[in-house]
Every structure is written in structure tokens, then in C-alpha cells.
TrEMBL record, chain A:
<dbReference type="Pfam" id="PF00528">
    <property type="entry name" value="BPD_transp_1"/>
</dbReference>
<feature type="transmembrane region" description="Helical">
    <location>
        <begin position="20"/>
        <end position="45"/>
    </location>
</feature>
<dbReference type="InterPro" id="IPR035906">
    <property type="entry name" value="MetI-like_sf"/>
</dbReference>
<dbReference type="InterPro" id="IPR000515">
    <property type="entry name" value="MetI-like"/>
</dbReference>
<keyword id="KW-0472">Membrane</keyword>
<dbReference type="InterPro" id="IPR051204">
    <property type="entry name" value="ABC_transp_perm/SBD"/>
</dbReference>
<feature type="transmembrane region" description="Helical">
    <location>
        <begin position="184"/>
        <end position="205"/>
    </location>
</feature>
<dbReference type="GO" id="GO:0055085">
    <property type="term" value="P:transmembrane transport"/>
</dbReference>
<dbReference type="GO" id="GO:0031460">
    <property type="term" value="P:glycine betaine transport"/>
</dbReference>
From TrEMBL, chain B:
<dbReference type="InterPro" id="IPR027417">
    <property type="entry name" value="P-loop_NTPase"/>
</dbReference>
<dbReference type="GO" id="GO:0016887">
    <property type="term" value="F:ATP hydrolysis activity"/>
</dbReference>
<dbReference type="InterPro" id="IPR005892">
    <property type="entry name" value="Gly-betaine_transp_ATP-bd"/>
</dbReference>
<dbReference type="InterPro" id="IPR000644">
    <property type="entry name" value="CBS_dom"/>
</dbReference>
<comment type="subunit">
    <text>The complex is probably composed of two ATP-binding proteins, two transmembrane proteins and a solute-binding protein.</text>
</comment>
<comment type="similarity">
    <text>Belongs to the ABC transporter superfamily.</text>
</comment>
<keyword id="KW-1003">Cell membrane</keyword>
<keyword id="KW-0997">Cell inner membrane</keyword>
<dbReference type="InterPro" id="IPR017871">
    <property type="entry name" value="ABC_transporter-like_CS"/>
</dbReference>
Amino acid sequence: METIVFFMDNLDVILERTLQHIAIVGVAISLAILTGVPIGIAITLNRKAANIVLYVAAIIVTIPSIALFGLMIPILSLIGHGVGYLPAVIAVLLYSQLPIIRNTYTAISNVDPALREAARGLGMTPMQRLMKVEIPLAIPVVMAGVRIAVVMNIGITAIAAYIGAGGLGVFISRGISQTDPRQLITGAVMVSLLAIAADYALMWAQRRLTPASSSSTSASPSNA
Amino acid sequence: MIKLEKLSKVFETPGGGSVIAADQVSMEVNEGEICVLLGPSGCGKTTTLKMINALIPKTSGKITVAGRDVDTLNPVELRRSIGYVIQQIGLFPNMTIEDNICVVPDLLGWDRKKSRSRAGDLLEMVNLDPAIFLKRFPKELSGGQQQRVGVIRALAADPPVLLMDEPFGAIDPINRAVIQDEFLKMQSEIRKTIAFVSHDIDEAIKMADKVAIFKDGKLVQYASPDDLLARPVNDFVTSFVGSDRTLKRLSLLRVGEVMHGDQLRVTAQDEVGKARHLMQEAGHKNIVMVGPQGRARGFLHLNDILEARGTVAEHHNALPSTVHVKDDLRTAVSKMFRHDVSWLACVDDDGFFKGSITQRAISHALGATYRDSAEAAE
């Protein structure tokens, strides 16, 4: 009951911190797509490179987020951004690489060899093959990777409150330090709701991006 | 149209060895002909086919397609100018049937309207309704329908040459026969020059103008289907075409080519005596009774009417079966065996009596080639 009252009284703050949260995850994931998808495609050309890149990306995910934030403080302090928005975005960007690179890599390398042969035999250049066949077919699996990254990082971003990045994590960190269950619950519930909402929104986007009749063919590898 | 000269392919194996997949293959496919490359798996037929459109780079030798040395062409341009059909069909699941058909025209930068209307025409050629199928996605089609689309996709930019890699291999036998027939009918109009890989001797005999038999990368025999069955060059070809090779030739010959085209016949109103007289004169044991227009209605057997009187109508028997002049001998023989008869009346589309075919005439026709070759050998 108290929590609901707190919630209603602080709607403006909740909205502000939710938007901060979205700003961190949204910007970071967009950048992660711009880097991860090309990397995922590029490593399909070389198995050795693929193994190394996926290994490194996997190691990054095993670094606890709080440690990663700690590591970045001295480095980013050099440019005056040791704490705050920038390290939060970089952390999310790094954590997103594994699901996005791996799903892109898996999707592109699993394109039916017969389709690749047909595309070659009909006279497509490697670039045309990529743009007209391989990427369109990979989109559902790539999007599955993006969804995993988004949901995972909405949670991680909550911790970024400790390095002053703002967002819904502020409710949680204050809730803990002030032993205030109202703030704690508000923060936790909002983080969960945001994750669920983002997942559904991306699922919808994924359907829109997939040609009507090829949607169910993509089995998405997931690590969630 | 397609000319291969001493074409070879050597694959390096990871262990440092090498495998000769195609060994000095020389052959020529004439314009408008279907050449079936036939052989057991690993014989080099597919490798040879894929070297033609540079999907597999050749090790040595020369390939000429439509008068142009393929070495002088960019592989991508070359492939766009050659139709290509594969066993796995390879329709792009992210594109509609229309877009799939128009892949090559789009790559060539054809006018969109022109290529789209051609897609509809092509669908009609393979008996698929454009109104239904143009906007569908590949997985909404059956395997047979997909392969029809696969074939017309290869024809979309109207290439003079078509390469087909076991195109009907993944289709069930009933549909395969239907698609083969459709394809032959289409080919009789479009007259493409086609190299067609198959491992099925029956398919080769049915489809081919020429058959190229491969073994261990070498071209063993290059001949017409009839020649191949009648005169296999060595034991390998003999065993590959099968011990029933003479029977296989039955499907190469038409009833019309073998039947007695005699017009010996009686009508229902004729006297039995006339029939008896006609048969005795011609030395036949049977005579066909025709209707007023000339349709085959029944027959008389000489022994049944030796003493008989009256009209043909009173004594005739029903024909157990008839065979169409355009049917192959296989059908004729099958009907003879089923009805336990040694001859059949041959009719045309409208049922008009055209002649009769006997078991003796069939065995004579099949034996003719062997007698010719025996004489040639002497």
C-alpha cells in the first residue's frame, strides 16, 4: 500500500528515470547493432577469427558488471568521464556484443548451402548474396540476439546507478542504502516491466521485419 | 553450343594428395539438344556441369558457351547468361514467387514491369495460375510446384543455355514423371541447349537427345539414348544401363513407327465371307471391324469364322484393348501382356483405326539395331 502511494506521488521522477534508463540501453544497443552485426558477418569468412572473436565476447560477458564499471573509472577519467552516462553506455555496448555477434554469425553461417549455391549460380555477386539473401534470412535470428541483449542489459543498467548513470537503478540503490522497501520495490518492478515491454516491442518489430511466410523457419539460438 | 575441350579438374586433398574429378573431358552439346550427364556418384558429372558456369574453377581445358570462351567472361556475367537449376531447388524463402522468378532479370537491370509480366507468362507455361502463385512464398508450394518455379526462374532472362543438376531428383516418382513430361513439352517449344545431370538411366533415356556416361572422371561414352542401349562401348556402360537395356528401348520407340499401317478392315455390314477372304489373301489371322467413320469397333479371328455365315456384326469379338499410335512400345507390350494377346489395334486421338502392331513386329524392331551392328562388324 505504501509502495503504491510512493509510486503515485513520484510519477514524474519514475518517468524521468525510466527515460534515462531507456536512453542508456537504447543508445548502447543501437551502437552494439552497428558494430556487432558487421563483425558477425565478417567472421563467417574465417573460422579461426570467428572462434577468437566469439571467445573474447564470451569472456566480456563473464566480467561482473560492477567490476567492469570499476575498471572503466580510471580509463575514462582520462577524458573526464570516469562515472556517469558514458561508462554505462560502454558497458552495455560490450555486454551486447556476444548475443548480437553470435546470433548474426550463427544465422549467416546457417543459411542453407543450397540457397547460397542457387544465388551464386544465378549470378549474384557476394555482396548481392549478402544483401538479398543472407541478411534477410538472418534477420529473425539477429533480432533474437538483440532481444536477449536488451533484456539482459536493462538489468545491468540498473547497476549503473552506482556509477552515477541515473536510471531506474537509482530507486534500487537508494532503497537498499536507506532500507526503504518502497523505493526498492518501485525500482525492481519498473526494471522488470521495462524489460518485458522492450521484449514484446522487439518481438513485434521482429515480426514486422520478417517476410510473412518465412517467419517460423528461424530457430533462434538463445542464451537467456 | 556448349563445347568442352580436354576439360580437367584436379582437387587437392588436405592430406597433400589430389583427386582427379574430371579427366580430359571433351564433348559438344548441339543447339537445342538435351545432353544428360550420367553416371554413379563421384563420377565427375556434377563437377563437369559446374565448371561450365564457373561455380567450380577448372584446372585445365577449354569451355566454349554460345561461341564464347568462358575464360574471357566475368564469372558473374557468365552465370547470369546461363540458366541454372539445382536439385534442392533453392528458392529464396524471403522472396515471393514473383521475385524469385525475377532474380536474374533484376540482376540484369531489366524493366520491372516487363520482368513481372514475364514471370506470369512463365508460370502459365508450367500450369501454375499466376493469379494464385505470383504473390505466394516458396514454402506455401508443394515440392513439385517449387521445382516448376525453380525451372522457370532459370528461364526468366531467356538464356540460350540451361544447366540442370539433378533437377527432378528430389521429387516423388509420380510427380517426377509429370514434371519430366511437362518439361519436354516446354523444351519442344523453347529449344534451349541443356546440360542435365542425372544418375537415373531411365530419366536419361526419357529426357536426352544425347547421353554422356561418366566413370571416374572420364567420359566413357557419348551417344544417343538408342545407341547407348543398343551399343554400349564397354562392360561398365553395359552394366550401368542394365541387363534389361533392350526392354528400356521400348520406351524410345513409338507405336506408329512399328505398326503395320495396312488398311485391312471390314465393317459391321460386310459378309463374314469377305473378311475370311481378306485374311486368307493377306495371310493374317485377325481383322479389325471398324464403324461407319473408321473407328475401331471389334475384330474377327480367322479360325472362328472358317465355317461361319452371315454378317461381320454377328460374329465379331470386342477388342480387348487398343493402343495409341503415339504411345511408346512399352505401353503396347504392357497391354499385350495384360490381355494375353499378340497384337493390338492402333488408333489415333479420335479412335480412328490406323493399323495394328504385333509382338513379332516389336521384337523385329528391337532386333534391327543389333542386326545392323552385327553386319557393320563383319
